[in-house]
Design brief:
By secondary structure, this protein is an alpha+beta fold. The chain has helices at about 1-15, 155-170, and strands at about 20-25, 35-40, 50-60, 70, 75-80, 85-90, 95-100, 105-110, 120-125, 130-135, 135-140, 145-155. Strand 9 (about 120-125) and strand 10 form a beta hairpin.
Length: about 170
């Protein structure tokens, strides 16, 4: 049964491929918090041109503050905003945005199943980065813009297919 579902997920991914950009991110202060964004858009000569990028997937790949390793597509993180993203000037982000809420410079991602008392939120903004629990306990707060680096082109369907397969085999 899982084999057939795997075939169906992969077949659907092949038929609906859309290009996107994979970005690595890290906090600028300690550099201990690492992960990726997958956004819409395309690289031009291996560079991300200036523009507005909408985040379609997010992951944490390393953390010194016990924020869970995982991704949105894998069900480990979620956002309560209809869209999140950032504006890019060709070398650095100039604003992190969301389509609803109070902040015009910032967005956050929440841990789906946080450990009791553990971090449950990662926040991004120009001149700030934040890991906290329940808006009351701050694990890491930096007054520096997170570092973003475009690292390659991906297909959005491949990212979604990976998340679906990961959930299937849990």
């Amino acid at each position: 049964m899982k084999f057939m579902l795997t075939i169906l997920v992969l077949a659907a991914a092949c038929g609906a491929a859309q290009a996107g950009v994979q970005w690595s991110w890290s906090n600028a202060g300690t550099g201990t918090e690492l992960g990726t964004f997958i956004t819409d858009g395309e690289l031009v000569s291996d560079q991300a041109p200036a523009g507005t990028y909408t985040v379609v997937d997010f992951s944490v790949t390393a953390s010194a503050y016990d924020i869970p390793i995982g991704s949105m597509s894998g069900g480990d993180y979620f956002t309560n905003q209809p869209e999140i993203g950032f504006d890019w000037d060709g070398s650095v982000p100039t604003v992190f945005w969301r389509l609803s809420g109070f902040y015009t410079n910032g967005f956050g991602l929440f841990v789906t199943a946080p450990a009791p008392g553990g971090p449950d939120y990662v926040g991004f903004g120009v001149d700030w980065f934040l890991i906290e629990y329940d808006e009351d306990v701050t694990f890491l707060a930096e007054g520096l813009t997170p570092i973003l680096t475009p690292v390659g082109t991906v297909t959005a369907s491949a990212s979604a297919a990976f998340g679906a397969l990961k959930a299937l085999y849990r």
